[in-house]
């Protein structure tokens, strides 16, 4: 015991007690997915509070010199059988009555019960010190070590603080209008039943305005069901803010919505407000589902969910390398699906997984904040097979009706926190668009691969846009870089139009038995819509020095090794309400895009003169305000966008109309300067004239890493107010200008810079034949990107495999016609 006491005394100065703000990683290894439940448990450094699995703790000791670790092991308690349990070993689950998680009446969050063993371990010999050993040691040792142990165990782990343990979607605030709501004395009395919309006669989803008693239908939902927006339109005309959903009124309350506050609210004077229109709240019975019940139904809905998840068949669970499930951290299925697909691509495997030992050896002191380390950790976790094992399920060993396929899997908590940090959407636990996350992750890879191999090059390709002036027949060619092909869905090309029209007619007539008919769209029609020329009106032609009509044709200037196709299922209606197109597309297993390769300037074809259009400002010494179309600016403002963003949208689209301006807004909503005031080119105070020294070195390095010279990167950043994303877009649309740069912005010639070599003409892109085969697709279930669920299907050794969070199974009927993102790889010739 003296030896252990002496050891503790020798390391006592390195043992810290966690303070507020310290990040304590006691649930997950920083370099692997080991946890206290894993074989060997978890070692928490008692100085840095990093968690290390048994296979990495010796390496951490060798690098850091730290010797004292708190060893935590947990073993699952066996569940006690209950007489009232169902035959499967589980008590019957109660139907949720509340839109909440971890709260009475809400969705259950299963809490595992564990037995925990904690002791101090001194490296390198892994000598153990138990609580009993501490009791016999000197006071100074016992107190310091005990306080550190207690502090580590009592601290909230980082993973715990990143999760939403309890969420309540029903917490409603008192409406600011409730106390002083004005009600009109118009003699209106509402009957206790038989309500219809006063405009369209709809009998479902009926709301009564609490100011004037108007009975009107509710909002139209994303999928076209619901109401016809008449209650909302009435508010927009009158400004009367509160409405109650008829059919939800009981002595306990009702659904009350505030249009002004855009939320479900409480109305403490509801009995009084209802009595004004002859409604006795104490005698009313519920006949309609509340908004909470509707939302719960959406979260439990089948239909396309059943087809995409293949829940109608018994699926064979799969285990082994490359077949590892991922835990859903609360709406993280979009991330799970994308990362499962990415780590089937050789570029990502070789960059991160093949080099994992080197990456870990070079990791910084806090590897939880290092992008390369966390991506490598995730990739190795998915591909190694170490965590692809059946999840223990006490009580169901003999009673399971079918193999469920649940795995121990991995929980990508550190990875999600790191890639989402600072992002307004991906840092939350809300559902997100898988396509947007894929582009976000590719952008992070680009930023972190300035030297060495860059796996995102597997997706990078060049697009050539050819614009032909219809008056002069002269052409203009530009190129831009892209990573995803967005495939339009021409609904007018559906092959089952008659069935769709009949189903719509029955729905409008209120036939609740009308079947759900999905539009059948040929893939060839989608490709034709992508490749057909686009008509540009109000195109300013430098050949005729005026506005005219032009055609724009888009082609591939290069074909990537891996091609991602997004089906543009999510769109906006005429009223700018987002909706999802319910379509089935016969996406092929093989694809030949050779016919869409760009050909460049044709023999005998004349190019449009390189003359800029007349500026929107007066070219005086003092820059004048641009002439903007006020009506377009007003329309955009009415949609709720910031004024300065609307002004920039109209300015940068050259006053060409509401559609072009709206497209600009949708493309730039994530820009950091989206709402910043419009800064005009040539203005002395604008960022565009900032000297090179004040440009972001990080932005310059990012663009240079893509194959451009520093002078070209400088010019791009100056032209776009030092905004990286816009600079990248600008540089790829001005390749011809950059190639002919004789004098750089800094005053040196291109020959003087780069040691006399010409600057690279463009980005590093791979090219090859345009023939591809499908190897993966990601499907979305639900009515919008902000809700629902994502599932990935990936072809492994000629067998389709479904990755549904922690479930990994052999796919029986891969629903290739219902996908959202499709991944193809080049076929070698």
From TrEMBL:
Reactions catalysed, as given in the entry: Thiol-dependent hydrolysis of ester, thioester, amide, peptide and isopeptide bonds formed by the C-terminal Gly of ubiquitin (a 76-residue protein attached to proteins as an intracellular targeting signal)
Enzyme class: hydrolase
Start and end residues of each UBP-type domain: 173-281
InterPro entries, per database record: Papain-like_cys_pep_sf, Peptidase_C19_UCH, Ub_carboxyl-term_hydrolase, UBA, UBA-like_sf, Ubiquitinyl_hydrolase, UBP13_Znf-UBP_var, USP
Chain residue ranges for the region called Disordered: 75-98, 386-406, 494-516, 743-766
GO terms of molecular function: cysteine-type deubiquitinase activity; zinc ion binding
Domain USP: 324-827
PROSITE patterns, per the entry: UBA, USP_1, USP_2, USP_3, ZF_UBP
GO process terms (BP): protein deubiquitination; proteolysis
Alphabetical keyword list: Hydrolase, Metal-binding, Protease, Repeat, Thiol protease, Ubl conjugation pathway, Zinc, Zinc-finger
All residue ranges annotated as the UBA domain in the record: 627-668, 694-734
List of residues binding Zn(2+): 197, 200, 217, 230
Protein name, per record: Ubiquitin carboxyl-terminal hydrolase
